Amino acid sequence: MTDADQPLLQRFFEANPEYHLAVEGAPPGPGAAQAELDALPPEDWRFEKKWLLRFGDAGDPMIGMADLISELFVDGVWHIGLFIVATRLHGSGTAPALYEALESWLRAQGCRWIRLGVVAGNARAERFWENCGYREVRKRLAVTMGRKTNDVRVMVKPLAGGSLRQYLSAVTRDRPDER
């Protein structure tokens, strides 16, 4: 997605506020889409590119979206910052199908490990990522997100034969004992 997709993304966020309510404690505001388009990792984080992907089907130009960061911290690590599927499709098998397509695309891009953060206590999201094969490597405590302060489970899934041990050797920030 590009800045030209901002109105579509804003409508999607407003029609599917569950993520924002659960994680930030409020529905998406009028600038939520632009904030998502503009958001980048902290300046001291090494990365290659931010990607905003839109999932659509024949009847709807946007049934889901993903925010990705390529080559985060080290080569081969990609980060999923956000993955939202339209609420009306929850429980239909759409989210796992979209995720499988995303994972296949990531493998084709040379991704060796996928990393993400899930808010502790967001049971539906935690269960989804665990069912996709992600494992917690550490927790980040008291992370401010909108109006809420959350604990975040940092989770990783090795791809292309990489192991969690290799990942933690390369990405020291995610070691359980790092601050």
Q: How do you describe this structure in short?
A:
This protein has 179 residues and is an alpha+beta fold. The chain has six helices and six strands.
Please explain how this structure is put together:
The protein is α+β, with helices and mostly antiparallel strands and 179 residues long. The chain has one domain: 3-Layer(aba) Sandwich (Aminopeptidase). It contains six helices and six strands. A six-stranded mixed sheet has the order 1-2-3-4-6-5, with helices on both faces. α1 packs across α3. The mean pLDDT is 95.
What tags apply to this protein structure?
alpha+beta; 32% strand; 179 residues; six-stranded mixed beta sheet; Aminopeptidase; 31% helix; 6 helices
Q: What's the structural blueprint in terms of helices and strands?
A:
Layout: H1 6-15, H2 18-24, H3 32-38, E1 49-57, E2 60-70, E3 77-85, H4 94-108, E4 113-119, H5 123-131, E5 135-145, E6 148-158, H6 164-170
